[in-house]
Amino acid sequence: MNLKDKLYIVTGAAIDSDIGLAICKKLDAHGAKLILIGRREEALEATRCQLVGDHYVVPYNLSRLDDILPWAKTINEKYGPIDGLVHSASFQGYSPLRSISAKQINNYFDVNFSAALMLTTAFSRTKYYSHNASFVYIGSVAGQRGLKARTLYAASKAALSSLVQSAALELAIKSIRVNCVAPAIVSGAKADKQFQTIGEHQSQALIAAHPLGLCAPEDVANSVYFLVSDLSLKITGTTLIVDGGFLAG
Ligand SMILES: NC(=O)c1ccc[n+]([C@@H]2O[C@H](COP(=O)([O-])OP(=O)(O)OC[C@H]3O[C@@H](n4cnc5c(N)ncnc54)[C@H](OP(=O)(O)O)[C@@H]3O)[C@@H](O)[C@H]2O)c1
């Protein structure tokens, strides 16, 4: 399915993001034009250098929730209506219950959930989106089951799965589809760091909990491509689990 002449916003598109970069490469390979969002301009430029097509780099801090509506207006004036958005930016980490603060709650929820919600609000306004637009948020299996010491990350990702259900109902009248992709841990730099932290024994157990093996970032990108393309025209309000079988066990 060709995405030529289609325009997508991809947040979390920095060169050192595992999944964001893979999504950019996948959509670029199918001819889409991308608006790359993240806080570090040089990290977005580095991603743009890896891509074939002409794309736009727009540094923005998604924690500035109050500014998202006016910021979206400038994007719309400059680049026109979008065919979809992929919200991959996130705040990740551990949050044991004994150490949780109000600031920490905001850190997780602002980027992982509230920014997704405000982007949806902004880009579902008339003239901000094209016919059959598709909005995709990157959730996590953490939002589908309990994970020790990860309450805030897990809850912020669970909120995304709830968001797509309600938003899908409200935006169907505009032919906008809204879906979530929920990966398990993917291979890459972050996974390697985590394996180093937890040691050989626990790493093997974690890998074994994925019957099909760990997903690569490209596996997640393939699902995003499916959900933004017309291959999934009748799919909305759902969370697509991409986890090598992790949740099946
Ligand atoms: N990696 C995994 O194993 C895994 C597993 C399950 C789910 N996920 C989910 O998949 C998505 C991608 O994961 P990832 O590990 O590739 O990327 P990530 O490191 O979580 O985030 C990608 C980029 O988001 C940007 N970002 C963070 N805060 C931002 C903010 N306030 N405003 C704008 N941009 C911001 C950062 O770039 P800047 O610093 O330049 O802003 C960062 O490089 C995330 O939603 C993550 O929760 C990942």
Automatic annotation (TrEMBL):
InterPro entries: NAD(P)-bd_dom_sf, Sc_DH/Rdtase_CS, SDR, SDR_fam. CDD domains: SDR_c (cd05233). It comes from the Bacteria. PANTHER family: 3-OXOACYL-(ACYL-CARRIER-PROTEIN) REDUCTASE (PTHR42879), 3-OXOACYL-[ACYL-CARRIER-PROTEIN] REDUCTASE FABG (PTHR42879:SF2). Belongs to the short-chain dehydrogenases/reductases (SDR) family. This is NAD(P)-dependent oxidoreductase. It comes from Shewanella morhuae.
